[in-house]
Design a protein that fits this description.
This is AMP-dependent synthetase/ligase domain-containing protein. GO terms for molecular function: CoA-ligase activity. It comes from Zymoseptoria tritici (strain ST99CH_3D7). InterPro entries: AMP-bd_C, AMP-bd_C_sf, AMP-binding_CS, AMP-dep_synth/lig_dom, ANL_N_sf. It holds the Pfam family AMP-binding. By secondary structure, this protein is α/β, with parallel strands linked by helices. Among the domains are: about 5-10 and about 30-195, Rossmann fold; about 345-430, Luciferase, domain 3; about 435-560, 2-Layer Sandwich (GMP Synthetase, Chain A, domain 3). About 25% of the residues lie in helices and about 25% in strands. The chain contains 15 helices and 27 strands. The strands form seven sheets. It has a seven-stranded mixed sheet, with helices on both faces. Strand 1 and strand 2 (about 30) form a beta hairpin. The radius of gyration is 24 Å and the shape is globular. The termini are far apart.
């Protein structure tokens, strides 16, 4: 059975109850019956328009209840759906269209001009550009046949499952998701029908344990993998899904209260910001009383931040957890109120039937025993198959050792020696750099700096050091209140708590904001053009005498800041 037929075979008990709700305009909602009908009509309309087997269809839109309905409709027509970030610029769109060999595009009306320019450069004709007019009506002078609204009028009786096509295969790609691209150009992660069925089954099984009346709020941009899981929970009736375009902490708090939301996934920055909003008069903890499950994903959350958020929740069964995973993986360690993760760990490793997690030496690829720290490697039925148009990147992402073939996550961590084992994630090998002969994991230093009063956000990276060919740590810092912190105080704070080589002696640059993607991960490439605000400092030297740390600034600060990266 193909992915869409499998998904449609798992309908909720009441197919007339709303499963998808626009949290910004609640009169817009869809039942399962309306969802299934829309998927089939879109499939019929696309095939009538000329979509061929395995044609790639890209979608540029902000969050909407029809977002993954279109995705499922494309899959039901035998095509491949590939979301692209709505904020992408022309050159980025062109590069991504070419990477996935896109044949068709759906785009929100107010993004049409940018997308049309990109499509032209990528060789996609105007006749293959459809308007995703779910919220914003198509302009009167636009060909109305090339709209989502028109597709939704297609003849339902003409639909038949993709599995009835002799060309269909469960190993064929069905969804392409661009990875975060935080350290370079984003890669297109190819998910086969088989992998999507395995992911759906995992979500279905998990959702069966939800208490009645669960309501999920989703604000993270829907081009990310997390939106598929909450959509699956909705279509199986496990949890009604409220979708919003708002992304500020204050709005999220008010939406939680307005809809009595019980479940939400947040990125670490939102986890930090929501308590701050409440402390500064933006509401009180009573507004969060309905929450029972909060998962922080898209980065490593501070243990103290998790605890502070847990203290805000009133339901005795409420649980705040740190979720770990990746677009390529499809499964994650779990934790709950009854089975919490051990302190310092993100969750309990699932059974091998779901997915296998091992720790390897990043250089030799040999398996390491618990609790040795190494690179986290995984395998399982939910795993992606390859990176589209990048065989060399795919090859380097997998390793084969005495245990078999595994995907290298690039994350550093270790397993507990317990049964079942718990997983701890300690940093990113891909972001690790060396100062002298010693490794520095940016996440470790960031975690320490975030504990300094007055720090709102921070990213640690490397910069060319004072010794030829060497590197030093450098911190980009956003203050809660401008002009309060001193750069020297940031350096000494780290030096007093970590080894001296981990202190940001390469510079502390105060900035207005840290560029982050839809799941809160820093887009490090955009930091290169950051301009330091007043108070930023260049090279500094840490001195320790009698247990007392002092910091001295190097001369020619202005010259140093002029080449900040």
């Amino acid at each position: 059975m193909d992915y869409i037929s499998h998904k449609l075979s798992h309908q909720p008990e009441d197919i007339h109850e709303p499963i998808l709700v626009d949290a910004d305009s609640p009169t817009r909602s869809l039942t399962w019956q309306e969802y299934a009908s829309a998927v089939k009509r879109i499939a019929v309309g696309l095939k009538t328009a000329g979509l061929r087997h395995l044609d790639c269809v890209c979608l540029l839109s902000r969050n909407d209840i029809y977002y993954w309905i279109l995705g499922d409709g494309v899959a039901a027509a035998g095509g491949i759906i590939c979301p692209i970030a709505s904020f992408a610029k022309v050159d980025e769109i062109v590069r991504q269209l070419q990477t996935v060999d896109a044949k068709w595009i759906f785009v929100e009306p107010d993004l049409l001009e940018t997308t049309t320019t990109a499509a032209s450069k990528a060789g996609i004709p105007p006749s293959h550009i459809f308007l995703f007019d779910a919220q914003i009506p198509a302009p009167a002078d636009f060909n109305q046949d090339l709209t989502l609204s028109h597709l939704l009028t297609s003849d339902l009786a003409a639909w038949h499952p993709p599995s009835q096509d002799s060309t269909s295969s469960l190993q064929e790609p069905c969804v392409l998701l661009f990875s975060s691209g935080t350290t370079g150009h984003a890669k297109a992660v190819s998910l086969s029908q088989s992998a999507l069925i395995a992911r759906f089954n995992l979500h279905f099984k998990h959702g069966q344990h939800f208490p009645p009346g669960e309501r999920t709020l989703h604000y993270i941009a829907q081009q990310h993998a997390s939106s598929q899981s909450v959509h699956n929970y909705a279509t199986t009736g496990a949890a009604r899904l409220y979708i919003t375009r708002r992304q500020d902490a204050s709005s999220i708090i008010h939406l939680i209260q307005a809809y009595a939301i019980t479940r939400i996934m947040v990125h670490p920055q939102m986890l930090e910001e929501m308590p701050v909003v409440l402390r500064h008069g933006g509401g009180d903890r009573e507004m969060l009383k309905s929450l029972r499950s909060v998962a922080s994903g898209g980065g490593i959350a501070r243990p103290q931040a998790l605890k502070e958020f847990q203290d805000l929740l009133q339901d005795p069964d409420a649980h705040v957890s740190s979720a770990w995973g990746a677009t390529e993986i499809g499964f994650f360690p779990s934790s709950s109120k009854s089975q919490p993760a051990m302190e310092g760990y993100v969750g309990i490793v699932p059974p091998p039937s779901v997915g296998e997690i091992i720790i390897i030496d990043p250089e030799t690829h040999f398996p390491l025993p618990p609790p040795s720290t190494g690179e986290i490697a995984v395998r399982g039925p939910t795993l992606f198959s390859h990176y589209t148009s990048s065989p060399s990147t795919t090859s380097s992402a997998f390793i084969t050792n005495s245990l078999g073939t595994y995907f290298r996550t690039g994350d550093a961590g270790h397993l507990s020696p317990t049964s079942p084992p718990h997983l701890a994630v300690t940093g990113r090998y891909k972001a690790v750099f060396r100062v002298g002969t010693e490794d520095v994991m940016p996440e470790e230093v960031e975690s320490v700096i975030k504990q300094l009063p007055g720090v709102k956000d921070v990213v640690v990276t490397s910069t060319p050091g004072r010794r030829s060919g060497g590197l030093e740590a450098m911190a980009y810092v956003v203050e809660e209140e401008r002009g309060v912190l001193k750069a020297e105080a940031v350096v000494s704070w780290v030096a007093e708590r970590l080894a001296g080589h981990k202190a940001p002696t390469g510079g502390v640059v105060f900035v207005q904001r840290i560029p982050r993607n839809g799941v809160g991960k820093c887009v490090r490439g955009e930091l290169e053009g950051a301009v330091g605000l007043k108070g930023s400092r260049g090279f500094m030297t840490v001195r320790e005498e009698g247990g007392v740390v002092s910091v001295e600034e190097e001369k020619r600060v202005e010259e140093r800041l002029s080449r900040t990266n």
